[in-house]
Task: structure prediction
Amino acid sequence: MLIGSPATSNASVITVNPVLTPAVSITASSTTICSGSTVTFTATPTNGGSAPTYQWYLNGGIVVGQTSASFSTNTLNNGDVVTVELTSNATPCLATTTVLSNAITIVLNPDIVASVSIVASTNTICSGSGVTFTATPTNGGTAPTYQWFVNGNPVAGQTASTFTSTTLVNGASVTVQMTSNATPCLVGSPATSNAEVIVVNPIPVITASNNGPLCVSEQLNLNVTNIAGAVYSWTGPQLFVSAIQNPSISNVTLSNAGTYNVTVNLNGCTATASTTVTIGTGTAATINPAGPFCVNSGVVTLTASAPNGVWSGPGITNPSTGTFDPTLATIGINTISYTTPGACGGTSTMDIVILPIPTVSISSNVTTGCSPLLVTFTDNSVPASASVVWDFGNGETSSTSTTTTYTSSGCYDITLTSTNAGGCSNTLTFNDFVCVLADPIADFYTSSYSTSMYDPSFQFVNQSTNAVSYSWNFGNGTTSSIANPSVTYSEDPGSYTVQLVAYNAAGCTDTISKIVTVTEELIFFVPNSFTPNGDEFNNAFLPVFTSGFDPYEFSFTIFNRWGETVFESKDATIGWDGTYHGEIVPEGVYTWTVRMKDIQSDKKYTFSGHVNVLK
Result:
Protein backbone atom coordinates (compact mmCIF):
# COMPACT_ATOMS: atom_id res chain seq x y z
CA MET A 1 0.00 0.00 0.00
CA LEU A 2 1.41 3.20 -0.98
CA ILE A 3 1.68 5.57 1.73
CA GLY A 4 3.30 8.90 2.14
CA SER A 5 2.61 9.93 -1.31
CA PRO A 6 2.84 12.48 -2.35
CA ALA A 7 5.93 12.80 -0.32
CA THR A 8 7.87 16.06 0.32
CA SER A 9 11.66 16.04 0.03
CA ASN A 10 14.14 17.75 2.23
CA ALA A 11 14.89 21.44 1.44
CA SER A 12 18.11 22.51 -0.33
CA VAL A 13 19.23 26.19 0.17
CA ILE A 14 20.81 27.84 -2.86
CA THR A 15 23.27 30.76 -2.45
CA VAL A 16 23.40 33.17 -5.42
CA ASN A 17 26.61 35.24 -5.43
CA PRO A 18 26.61 38.62 -7.06
CA VAL A 19 28.50 39.14 -10.23
CA LEU A 20 31.80 40.99 -9.49
CA THR A 21 32.63 43.60 -12.07
CA PRO A 22 36.26 44.73 -11.84
CA ALA A 23 37.23 48.37 -12.55
CA VAL A 24 40.34 50.61 -12.29
CA SER A 25 40.92 54.40 -12.32
CA ILE A 26 44.19 56.32 -12.57
CA THR A 27 45.39 59.74 -11.44
CA ALA A 28 48.53 61.75 -12.40
CA SER A 29 50.79 63.86 -10.19
CA SER A 30 50.51 66.55 -12.90
CA THR A 31 48.85 66.69 -16.29
CA THR A 32 50.46 69.97 -17.45
CA ILE A 33 54.25 69.74 -17.44
CA CYS A 34 57.52 71.10 -18.76
CA SER A 35 59.83 69.12 -20.96
CA GLY A 36 61.72 66.56 -18.90
CA SER A 37 59.46 66.86 -15.88
CA THR A 38 58.65 63.58 -14.05
CA VAL A 39 54.98 62.54 -13.79
CA THR A 40 53.76 59.70 -11.52
CA PHE A 41 50.55 57.86 -12.41
CA THR A 42 48.71 55.90 -9.70
CA ALA A 43 46.09 53.14 -10.27
CA THR A 44 43.16 52.58 -7.90
CA PRO A 45 41.41 49.14 -8.47
CA THR A 46 37.82 48.11 -7.76
CA ASN A 47 37.21 44.33 -7.32
CA GLY A 48 40.77 43.75 -8.15
CA GLY A 49 41.05 40.77 -5.93
CA SER A 50 43.75 39.90 -3.57
CA ALA A 51 46.57 40.16 -6.13
CA PRO A 52 45.61 42.31 -9.03
CA THR A 53 48.13 42.84 -11.83
CA TYR A 54 48.64 45.86 -14.00
CA GLN A 55 49.93 46.75 -17.42
CA TRP A 56 50.53 50.40 -18.29
CA TYR A 57 49.98 51.76 -21.77
CA LEU A 58 51.33 54.94 -23.49
CA ASN A 59 49.36 56.02 -26.49
CA GLY A 60 47.89 52.46 -26.60
CA GLY A 61 51.23 50.78 -26.59
CA ILE A 62 52.51 48.59 -23.78
CA VAL A 63 55.08 50.22 -21.57
CA VAL A 64 57.45 47.38 -21.09
CA GLY A 65 58.12 46.42 -17.50
CA GLN A 66 55.57 48.77 -15.96
CA THR A 67 53.26 46.30 -14.13
CA SER A 68 52.89 47.84 -10.69
CA ALA A 69 50.14 49.98 -9.32
CA SER A 70 52.11 53.15 -10.15
CA PHE A 71 54.19 54.37 -13.06
CA SER A 72 56.66 57.30 -13.32
CA THR A 73 58.28 58.80 -16.42
CA ASN A 74 60.10 62.01 -17.53
CA THR A 75 59.89 61.42 -21.30
CA LEU A 76 56.35 62.47 -21.98
CA ASN A 77 55.40 64.57 -24.96
CA ASN A 78 52.54 66.93 -25.54
CA GLY A 79 49.27 64.95 -26.12
CA ASP A 80 50.57 61.61 -24.80
CA VAL A 81 47.72 59.40 -23.43
CA VAL A 82 48.39 57.12 -20.49
CA THR A 83 46.12 54.18 -19.43
CA VAL A 84 46.44 51.01 -17.37
CA GLU A 85 44.89 47.53 -17.75
CA LEU A 86 43.82 45.74 -14.55
CA THR A 87 43.72 41.94 -14.32
CA SER A 88 41.60 40.97 -11.29
CA ASN A 89 41.75 37.74 -9.34
CA ALA A 90 38.60 38.45 -7.38
CA THR A 91 36.23 35.41 -6.78
CA PRO A 92 33.62 34.21 -7.36
CA CYS A 93 31.34 35.38 -10.09
CA LEU A 94 33.90 37.69 -11.69
CA ALA A 95 32.23 39.26 -14.63
CA THR A 96 35.49 39.75 -16.50
CA THR A 97 39.11 39.49 -15.51
CA THR A 98 40.58 42.43 -17.31
CA VAL A 99 39.43 46.02 -17.51
CA LEU A 100 40.98 49.26 -18.88
CA SER A 101 41.25 52.41 -16.90
CA ASN A 102 40.33 55.94 -17.76
CA ALA A 103 42.81 57.80 -20.01
CA ILE A 104 44.94 60.80 -18.92
CA THR A 105 46.15 63.14 -21.64
CA ILE A 106 49.38 65.11 -20.94
CA VAL A 107 49.73 68.77 -21.87
CA LEU A 108 53.46 69.67 -22.40
CA ASN A 109 54.20 73.40 -22.11
CA PRO A 110 56.93 74.66 -24.46
CA ASP A 111 60.38 75.62 -23.01
CA ILE A 112 60.99 79.34 -22.38
CA VAL A 113 64.62 79.86 -23.45
CA ALA A 114 66.37 82.83 -21.76
CA SER A 115 69.03 84.77 -23.70
CA VAL A 116 70.58 88.21 -23.80
CA SER A 117 72.49 90.27 -26.36
CA ILE A 118 74.42 93.50 -26.02
CA VAL A 119 75.41 96.30 -28.36
CA ALA A 120 78.09 98.98 -27.85
CA SER A 121 77.56 102.63 -28.62
CA THR A 122 80.82 102.35 -30.58
CA ASN A 123 83.49 99.69 -30.96
CA THR A 124 86.34 102.06 -31.75
CA ILE A 125 87.30 104.88 -29.38
CA CYS A 126 90.20 107.09 -28.36
CA SER A 127 91.92 106.51 -25.05
CA GLY A 128 89.85 108.01 -22.25
CA SER A 129 86.61 108.18 -24.26
CA GLY A 130 83.44 106.56 -22.97
CA VAL A 131 81.52 103.57 -24.39
CA THR A 132 77.98 102.64 -23.36
CA PHE A 133 76.83 99.01 -23.60
CA THR A 134 73.09 98.15 -23.68
CA ALA A 135 71.66 94.70 -22.87
CA THR A 136 68.53 93.35 -24.63
CA PRO A 137 67.02 90.29 -22.86
CA THR A 138 64.90 87.52 -24.41
CA ASN A 139 62.51 85.76 -22.00
CA GLY A 140 63.97 87.80 -19.15
CA GLY A 141 60.76 87.74 -17.15
CA THR A 142 59.36 90.64 -15.24
CA ALA A 143 62.53 91.53 -13.33
CA PRO A 144 65.73 90.28 -14.96
CA THR A 145 69.05 91.04 -13.19
CA TYR A 146 72.45 91.73 -14.73
CA GLN A 147 76.17 91.49 -14.02
CA TRP A 148 78.65 93.10 -16.43
CA PHE A 149 82.10 91.61 -17.15
CA VAL A 150 85.26 93.06 -18.71
CA ASN A 151 87.68 90.44 -19.97
CA GLY A 152 85.80 87.85 -17.92
CA ASN A 153 86.09 89.78 -14.67
CA PRO A 154 82.95 91.11 -12.96
CA VAL A 155 82.72 94.89 -12.73
CA ALA A 156 81.77 95.79 -9.18
CA GLY A 157 78.45 97.63 -8.86
CA GLN A 158 77.48 97.28 -12.53
CA THR A 159 74.10 95.48 -12.33
CA ALA A 160 71.89 97.63 -14.54
CA SER A 161 70.85 96.90 -18.11
CA THR A 162 73.41 99.49 -19.34
CA PHE A 163 77.08 99.94 -18.55
CA THR A 164 79.35 102.91 -19.39
CA SER A 165 83.15 102.95 -19.06
CA THR A 166 85.93 105.46 -19.86
CA THR A 167 88.81 103.23 -18.72
CA LEU A 168 88.77 100.47 -21.32
CA VAL A 169 92.02 99.41 -22.92
CA ASN A 170 92.58 98.21 -26.43
CA GLY A 171 91.07 94.74 -27.06
CA ALA A 172 88.81 94.84 -24.00
CA SER A 173 85.98 92.25 -24.24
CA VAL A 174 82.70 93.21 -22.58
CA THR A 175 79.87 90.75 -21.78
CA VAL A 176 76.84 90.66 -19.51
CA GLN A 177 75.20 87.81 -17.61
CA MET A 178 71.39 88.01 -17.37
CA THR A 179 69.37 86.08 -14.79
CA SER A 180 65.68 85.67 -15.84
CA ASN A 181 62.62 85.26 -13.62
CA ALA A 182 60.32 84.12 -16.53
CA THR A 183 57.81 81.19 -15.87
CA PRO A 184 57.05 78.41 -16.56
CA CYS A 185 59.56 76.06 -18.19
CA LEU A 186 62.50 78.53 -18.07
CA VAL A 187 65.79 77.27 -19.51
CA GLY A 188 69.15 78.87 -20.21
CA SER A 189 69.18 81.21 -17.16
CA PRO A 190 71.53 82.80 -16.29
CA ALA A 191 72.36 83.60 -19.90
CA THR A 192 75.64 85.14 -21.11
CA SER A 193 75.59 87.66 -23.91
CA ASN A 194 77.73 88.03 -26.95
CA ALA A 195 81.08 89.75 -26.43
CA GLU A 196 81.68 93.29 -27.66
CA VAL A 197 85.41 93.81 -28.32
CA ILE A 198 86.53 97.44 -28.17
CA VAL A 199 89.38 98.95 -30.16
CA VAL A 200 91.03 101.75 -28.11
CA ASN A 201 93.30 103.99 -30.14
CA PRO A 202 95.95 106.02 -28.26
CA ILE A 203 95.91 109.82 -28.28
CA PRO A 204 99.08 111.12 -29.91
CA VAL A 205 101.70 112.69 -27.61
CA ILE A 206 103.25 115.64 -29.40
CA THR A 207 105.51 118.67 -28.89
CA ALA A 208 105.71 121.64 -31.24
CA SER A 209 108.80 123.85 -31.69
CA ASN A 210 110.42 126.34 -34.05
CA ASN A 211 113.90 127.54 -34.98
CA GLY A 212 113.38 131.08 -33.59
CA PRO A 213 113.97 133.64 -32.46
CA LEU A 214 114.40 134.86 -36.00
CA CYS A 215 115.24 138.05 -37.74
CA VAL A 216 113.29 139.56 -40.63
CA SER A 217 113.95 137.73 -43.95
CA GLU A 218 115.11 134.50 -42.28
CA GLN A 219 113.30 131.16 -42.82
CA LEU A 220 110.90 129.90 -40.19
CA ASN A 221 110.93 126.14 -39.65
CA LEU A 222 108.03 124.64 -37.71
CA ASN A 223 108.45 121.18 -36.16
CA VAL A 224 106.19 118.65 -34.43
CA THR A 225 106.70 115.13 -33.11
CA ASN A 226 106.69 112.47 -35.84
CA ILE A 227 103.74 110.05 -35.40
CA ALA A 228 103.58 107.21 -37.99
CA GLY A 229 100.31 107.28 -39.92
CA ALA A 230 99.17 110.58 -38.41
CA VAL A 231 97.53 113.47 -40.25
CA TYR A 232 98.82 117.01 -39.45
CA SER A 233 97.03 120.35 -39.59
CA TRP A 234 98.83 123.69 -38.84
CA THR A 235 97.30 127.14 -38.36
CA GLY A 236 98.96 130.42 -37.52
CA PRO A 237 99.27 134.17 -38.07
CA GLN A 238 98.44 135.66 -41.46
CA LEU A 239 95.87 132.85 -42.09
CA PHE A 240 98.69 130.32 -42.21
CA VAL A 241 97.52 126.72 -42.80
CA SER A 242 99.48 123.60 -43.70
CA ALA A 243 98.93 119.82 -43.78
CA ILE A 244 102.69 119.16 -43.82
CA GLN A 245 104.24 117.69 -40.72
CA ASN A 246 107.11 120.23 -40.54
CA PRO A 247 106.26 123.22 -42.72
CA SER A 248 108.49 126.25 -43.43
CA ILE A 249 107.98 129.94 -44.25
CA SER A 250 110.72 131.75 -46.18
CA ASN A 251 111.63 135.44 -45.85
CA VAL A 252 109.60 136.04 -42.70
CA THR A 253 108.36 139.49 -41.74
CA LEU A 254 107.30 140.86 -38.38
CA SER A 255 103.71 139.84 -39.24
CA ASN A 256 104.74 136.18 -39.18
CA ALA A 257 105.50 136.37 -35.46
CA GLY A 258 103.00 134.83 -33.06
CA THR A 259 101.59 131.48 -31.98
CA TYR A 260 101.35 128.51 -34.35
CA ASN A 261 98.99 125.63 -33.50
CA VAL A 262 99.18 122.08 -34.83
CA THR A 263 96.58 119.31 -34.59
CA VAL A 264 97.70 115.70 -35.07
CA ASN A 265 95.03 113.09 -35.94
CA LEU A 266 95.86 109.40 -35.53
CA ASN A 267 93.03 106.92 -36.15
CA GLY A 268 90.52 109.63 -35.28
CA CYS A 269 92.29 110.57 -32.04
CA THR A 270 93.68 114.11 -31.95
CA ALA A 271 96.22 116.10 -29.94
CA THR A 272 97.03 119.80 -30.15
CA ALA A 273 100.29 121.67 -29.43
CA SER A 274 101.51 125.22 -30.02
CA THR A 275 104.77 127.10 -30.40
CA THR A 276 105.46 130.84 -30.31
CA VAL A 277 107.65 132.43 -32.94
CA THR A 278 109.66 135.55 -32.09
CA ILE A 279 110.92 137.72 -34.95
CA GLY A 280 113.33 140.62 -34.45
CA THR A 281 113.79 143.74 -36.56
CA GLY A 282 117.57 143.53 -36.90
CA THR A 283 118.43 146.36 -34.47
CA ALA A 284 120.41 146.26 -31.23
CA ALA A 285 118.46 145.31 -28.13
CA THR A 286 117.75 147.91 -25.46
CA ILE A 287 119.29 147.28 -22.05
CA ASN A 288 116.80 147.79 -19.26
CA PRO A 289 118.03 150.49 -16.84
CA ALA A 290 119.81 149.27 -13.70
CA GLY A 291 121.59 150.87 -10.76
CA PRO A 292 123.09 152.74 -9.20
CA PHE A 293 124.25 149.99 -6.81
CA CYS A 294 126.18 150.05 -3.59
CA VAL A 295 129.33 148.00 -3.79
CA ASN A 296 127.88 145.59 -1.22
CA SER A 297 124.37 145.42 -2.76
CA GLY A 298 124.66 141.78 -3.83
CA VAL A 299 124.47 140.02 -7.20
CA VAL A 300 121.78 141.16 -9.67
CA THR A 301 120.69 139.94 -13.13
CA LEU A 302 120.63 142.49 -15.94
CA THR A 303 117.92 142.26 -18.64
CA ALA A 304 117.44 143.51 -22.19
CA SER A 305 114.55 143.85 -24.63
CA ALA A 306 115.70 140.84 -26.70
CA PRO A 307 116.95 137.48 -25.39
CA ASN A 308 120.02 135.34 -26.15
CA GLY A 309 122.52 138.19 -26.21
CA VAL A 310 126.02 138.25 -24.71
CA TRP A 311 126.90 140.54 -21.79
CA SER A 312 130.32 142.06 -21.14
CA GLY A 313 131.91 144.70 -18.95
CA PRO A 314 133.19 145.19 -15.37
CA GLY A 315 131.28 143.11 -12.83
CA ILE A 316 129.71 140.71 -15.39
CA THR A 317 130.20 137.15 -14.04
CA ASN A 318 128.00 135.24 -16.51
CA PRO A 319 127.91 136.56 -20.11
CA SER A 320 124.88 134.42 -20.99
CA THR A 321 122.58 135.33 -18.12
CA GLY A 322 123.74 138.90 -17.43
CA THR A 323 124.75 138.20 -13.82
CA PHE A 324 126.37 141.35 -12.41
CA ASP A 325 128.37 141.47 -9.15
CA PRO A 326 128.87 145.05 -7.84
CA THR A 327 131.82 143.92 -5.69
CA LEU A 328 133.76 143.06 -8.88
CA ALA A 329 133.00 146.34 -10.60
CA THR A 330 134.74 149.68 -10.17
CA ILE A 331 133.62 152.38 -7.76
CA GLY A 332 132.11 154.98 -10.06
CA ILE A 333 130.91 154.50 -13.67
CA ASN A 334 131.04 151.04 -15.32
CA THR A 335 130.12 150.66 -19.00
CA ILE A 336 128.19 147.41 -19.70
CA SER A 337 127.65 146.06 -23.26
CA TYR A 338 124.97 143.71 -24.62
CA THR A 339 125.40 142.11 -28.07
CA THR A 340 122.61 140.14 -29.80
CA PRO A 341 123.75 137.52 -32.38
CA GLY A 342 122.72 136.81 -35.96
CA ALA A 343 121.03 139.02 -38.50
CA CYS A 344 119.20 140.69 -35.62
CA GLY A 345 122.48 141.28 -33.87
CA GLY A 346 123.79 144.57 -32.52
CA THR A 347 125.54 146.01 -29.48
CA SER A 348 124.10 148.43 -26.99
CA THR A 349 125.72 149.88 -23.86
CA MET A 350 124.66 151.23 -20.51
CA ASP A 351 126.57 152.92 -17.66
CA ILE A 352 126.07 151.44 -14.20
CA VAL A 353 127.19 153.56 -11.26
CA ILE A 354 128.73 151.77 -8.27
CA LEU A 355 128.62 153.74 -5.02
CA PRO A 356 131.14 153.14 -2.22
CA ILE A 357 130.11 151.95 1.21
CA PRO A 358 131.28 153.92 4.24
CA THR A 359 134.51 153.03 6.02
CA VAL A 360 133.22 152.84 9.55
CA SER A 361 135.40 154.30 12.29
CA ILE A 362 134.64 155.51 15.84
CA SER A 363 136.34 157.04 18.86
CA SER A 364 135.25 157.90 22.40
CA ASN A 365 136.22 160.21 25.23
CA VAL A 366 137.07 157.21 27.46
CA THR A 367 137.41 153.48 26.87
CA THR A 368 138.10 152.29 30.43
CA GLY A 369 136.70 153.32 33.79
CA CYS A 370 134.63 152.44 36.79
CA SER A 371 130.85 152.22 36.91
CA PRO A 372 128.80 154.21 36.34
CA LEU A 373 130.90 155.07 33.29
CA LEU A 374 129.56 157.85 31.03
CA VAL A 375 130.96 157.49 27.50
CA THR A 376 130.53 159.82 24.54
CA PHE A 377 131.25 158.32 21.10
CA THR A 378 132.26 160.05 17.88
CA ASP A 379 131.44 158.80 14.36
CA ASN A 380 134.59 159.11 12.20
CA SER A 381 133.21 157.20 9.18
CA VAL A 382 134.36 158.16 5.67
CA PRO A 383 132.50 159.49 3.77
CA ALA A 384 130.56 161.27 6.47
CA SER A 385 127.41 159.46 7.57
CA ALA A 386 124.05 160.76 6.45
CA SER A 387 122.37 158.58 9.08
CA VAL A 388 123.63 156.19 11.76
CA VAL A 389 122.42 153.51 14.12
CA TRP A 390 124.46 152.98 17.29
CA ASP A 391 124.36 149.77 19.31
CA PHE A 392 126.20 150.50 22.55
CA GLY A 393 126.31 146.87 23.66
CA ASN A 394 124.47 147.55 26.91
CA GLY A 395 120.99 147.03 25.48
CA GLU A 396 120.70 150.64 24.27
CA THR A 397 120.56 151.72 20.62
CA SER A 398 120.22 155.16 19.12
CA SER A 399 120.14 156.98 15.83
CA THR A 400 120.62 160.39 17.44
CA SER A 401 122.43 160.23 20.79
CA THR A 402 126.09 159.29 21.01
CA THR A 403 126.24 159.13 24.80
CA THR A 404 125.42 156.21 27.08
CA THR A 405 126.15 155.11 30.65
CA TYR A 406 127.52 151.68 31.58
CA THR A 407 126.47 150.54 35.04
CA SER A 408 127.78 146.97 35.06
CA SER A 409 131.36 145.80 34.90
CA GLY A 410 132.59 144.05 31.76
CA CYS A 411 133.73 144.80 28.23
CA TYR A 412 131.21 145.96 25.62
CA ASP A 413 131.08 145.60 21.83
CA ILE A 414 130.14 148.80 20.00
CA THR A 415 128.38 148.45 16.64
CA LEU A 416 127.86 151.36 14.24
CA THR A 417 125.81 151.20 11.05
CA SER A 418 126.66 154.14 8.82
CA THR A 419 124.60 155.13 5.78
CA ASN A 420 126.10 157.71 3.43
CA ALA A 421 124.31 160.24 1.22
CA GLY A 422 124.11 157.69 -1.61
CA GLY A 423 122.10 155.28 0.55
CA CYS A 424 124.96 152.80 0.95
CA SER A 425 125.39 151.27 4.38
CA ASN A 426 128.11 149.46 6.22
CA THR A 427 128.11 147.96 9.68
CA LEU A 428 131.18 147.34 11.81
CA THR A 429 131.46 145.97 15.33
CA PHE A 430 134.32 147.04 17.59
CA ASN A 431 134.84 144.22 20.02
CA ASP A 432 135.51 145.07 23.69
CA PHE A 433 135.79 148.75 22.80
CA VAL A 434 134.65 149.92 26.24
CA CYS A 435 135.63 148.07 29.41
CA VAL A 436 134.07 148.90 32.78
CA LEU A 437 136.30 147.64 35.55
CA ALA A 438 134.80 145.95 38.56
CA ASP A 439 134.91 148.14 41.69
CA PRO A 440 137.61 147.15 44.17
CA ILE A 441 136.52 145.62 47.48
CA ALA A 442 139.00 146.20 50.26
CA ASP A 443 139.35 143.61 53.03
CA PHE A 444 142.02 142.09 55.24
CA TYR A 445 142.42 140.05 58.39
CA THR A 446 145.05 139.15 60.97
CA SER A 447 145.25 135.99 63.05
CA SER A 448 144.60 137.97 66.24
CA TYR A 449 143.35 141.52 66.64
CA SER A 450 144.82 141.75 70.17
CA THR A 451 148.32 140.92 71.34
CA SER A 452 150.48 141.32 74.42
CA MET A 453 152.70 144.29 74.85
CA TYR A 454 155.56 141.79 75.08
CA ASP A 455 155.05 140.87 71.40
CA PRO A 456 153.20 143.81 69.80
CA SER A 457 153.49 142.53 66.16
CA PHE A 458 150.71 141.86 63.60
CA GLN A 459 150.80 140.08 60.19
CA PHE A 460 148.04 141.34 57.88
CA VAL A 461 146.56 139.12 55.14
CA ASN A 462 145.07 141.08 52.23
CA GLN A 463 141.72 139.69 51.00
CA SER A 464 140.83 142.54 48.65
CA THR A 465 139.27 141.74 45.26
CA ASN A 466 139.37 143.55 41.90
CA ALA A 467 142.41 145.51 43.14
CA VAL A 468 145.87 145.97 41.65
CA SER A 469 147.56 148.24 44.29
CA TYR A 470 147.19 149.04 47.99
CA SER A 471 147.86 151.74 50.59
CA TRP A 472 148.12 150.81 54.30
CA ASN A 473 148.05 153.19 57.30
CA PHE A 474 148.74 151.37 60.58
CA GLY A 475 147.60 154.17 62.92
CA ASN A 476 151.04 154.66 64.47
CA GLY A 477 152.44 156.97 61.81
CA THR A 478 153.73 154.21 59.54
CA THR A 479 152.39 153.15 56.10
CA SER A 480 152.96 150.46 53.45
CA SER A 481 152.04 149.68 49.82
CA ILE A 482 152.78 145.97 49.74
CA ALA A 483 149.91 143.49 49.57
CA ASN A 484 150.43 141.63 52.87
CA PRO A 485 152.45 143.80 55.26
CA SER A 486 153.42 143.28 58.91
CA VAL A 487 153.86 145.92 61.63
CA THR A 488 155.35 146.02 65.13
CA TYR A 489 153.92 148.55 67.56
CA SER A 490 155.63 150.01 70.66
CA GLU A 491 155.32 148.09 73.89
CA ASP A 492 152.93 150.66 75.29
CA PRO A 493 149.43 149.24 75.61
CA GLY A 494 146.80 150.82 73.39
CA SER A 495 144.46 150.46 70.36
CA TYR A 496 145.38 151.33 66.72
CA THR A 497 143.16 151.85 63.70
CA VAL A 498 144.55 150.04 60.64
CA GLN A 499 143.26 151.39 57.31
CA LEU A 500 143.57 149.66 53.91
CA VAL A 501 142.82 151.50 50.64
CA ALA A 502 142.46 149.16 47.56
CA TYR A 503 142.86 150.55 43.99
CA ASN A 504 141.69 148.90 40.72
CA ALA A 505 143.36 149.48 37.33
CA ALA A 506 141.23 152.58 36.73
CA GLY A 507 142.24 154.13 40.05
CA CYS A 508 138.89 153.54 41.72
CA THR A 509 139.20 152.93 45.47
CA ASP A 510 137.60 151.17 48.37
CA THR A 511 138.62 151.64 52.03
CA ILE A 512 138.28 149.45 55.09
CA SER A 513 139.49 150.02 58.68
CA LYS A 514 139.93 147.62 61.58
CA ILE A 515 141.25 148.07 65.15
CA VAL A 516 144.13 146.12 66.67
CA THR A 517 145.08 146.31 70.37
CA VAL A 518 148.34 145.98 72.30
CA THR A 519 147.25 144.82 75.74
CA GLU A 520 148.83 145.21 79.21
CA GLU A 521 149.95 141.80 80.58
CA LEU A 522 148.20 140.46 83.69
CA ILE A 523 151.06 139.83 86.21
CA PHE A 524 150.85 139.08 89.95
CA PHE A 525 152.77 137.11 92.64
CA VAL A 526 151.34 135.11 95.56
CA PRO A 527 153.70 134.08 98.50
CA ASN A 528 153.44 130.51 99.78
CA SER A 529 154.15 131.32 103.49
CA PHE A 530 154.01 134.12 105.99
CA THR A 531 154.65 134.60 109.78
CA PRO A 532 151.93 136.58 111.57
CA ASN A 533 154.03 136.82 114.81
CA GLY A 534 153.92 140.56 115.28
CA ASP A 535 157.53 141.28 114.27
CA GLU A 536 158.23 143.71 111.50
CA PHE A 537 158.70 141.11 108.77
CA ASN A 538 156.18 139.11 106.76
CA ASN A 539 153.23 139.67 109.03
CA ALA A 540 150.51 139.76 106.27
CA PHE A 541 149.59 137.58 103.31
CA LEU A 542 148.26 139.12 99.99
CA PRO A 543 148.84 138.88 96.20
CA VAL A 544 151.33 141.30 94.75
CA PHE A 545 150.11 142.80 91.36
CA THR A 546 152.33 144.57 88.86
CA SER A 547 149.87 145.23 85.95
CA GLY A 548 146.86 144.17 83.96
CA PHE A 549 144.07 143.74 86.48
CA ASP A 550 140.96 145.73 87.25
CA PRO A 551 141.06 146.68 90.97
CA TYR A 552 137.29 147.19 90.93
CA GLU A 553 136.65 143.58 90.00
CA PHE A 554 138.76 141.86 92.73
CA SER A 555 138.15 139.48 95.66
CA PHE A 556 140.60 137.62 97.94
CA THR A 557 139.37 134.74 100.22
CA ILE A 558 141.16 132.43 102.77
CA PHE A 559 139.72 129.01 103.78
CA ASN A 560 140.81 126.71 106.63
CA ARG A 561 141.01 123.01 106.10
CA TRP A 562 137.34 122.62 107.04
CA GLY A 563 136.30 125.00 104.29
CA GLU A 564 135.45 127.82 106.61
CA THR A 565 136.13 131.36 105.35
CA VAL A 566 138.64 132.86 107.73
CA PHE A 567 139.37 136.00 105.67
CA GLU A 568 137.85 137.90 102.73
CA SER A 569 138.80 141.21 101.07
CA LYS A 570 137.68 143.26 98.05
CA ASP A 571 140.73 145.55 98.22
CA ALA A 572 143.93 144.35 96.59
CA THR A 573 145.96 146.43 99.06
CA ILE A 574 144.62 144.73 102.20
CA GLY A 575 146.03 141.31 103.07
CA TRP A 576 145.32 138.66 105.73
CA ASP A 577 147.02 139.21 109.07
CA GLY A 578 146.69 135.56 110.10
CA THR A 579 143.80 136.07 112.54
CA TYR A 580 140.36 134.60 112.70
CA HIS A 581 137.82 136.15 115.13
CA GLY A 582 140.65 138.24 116.54
CA GLU A 583 142.88 135.26 117.33
CA ILE A 584 146.03 134.11 115.49
CA VAL A 585 145.12 130.95 113.63
CA PRO A 586 147.06 127.78 114.30
CA GLU A 587 150.02 126.97 112.16
CA GLY A 588 149.21 124.93 109.09
CA VAL A 589 148.19 125.05 105.45
CA TYR A 590 145.33 127.31 104.32
CA THR A 591 143.66 127.65 100.92
CA TRP A 592 143.36 130.94 99.10
CA THR A 593 141.22 132.03 96.13
CA VAL A 594 141.68 135.18 94.00
CA ARG A 595 138.94 136.35 91.59
CA MET A 596 139.75 139.25 89.18
CA LYS A 597 139.12 140.71 85.70
CA ASP A 598 141.63 141.47 82.93
CA ILE A 599 141.57 145.21 82.41
CA GLN A 600 142.19 144.83 78.63
CA SER A 601 139.83 142.05 77.63
CA ASP A 602 137.30 142.13 80.50
CA LYS A 603 137.98 138.44 80.87
CA LYS A 604 137.41 137.12 84.41
CA TYR A 605 139.90 134.77 86.09
CA THR A 606 139.86 132.63 89.25
CA PHE A 607 143.16 131.48 90.79
CA SER A 608 143.60 129.18 93.85
CA GLY A 609 146.54 128.04 95.91
CA HIS A 610 147.88 127.24 99.41
CA VAL A 611 149.72 129.25 102.00
CA ASN A 612 151.62 128.07 105.07
CA VAL A 613 151.02 129.93 108.33
CA LEU A 614 154.25 129.90 110.42
CA LYS A 615 154.89 131.32 113.87
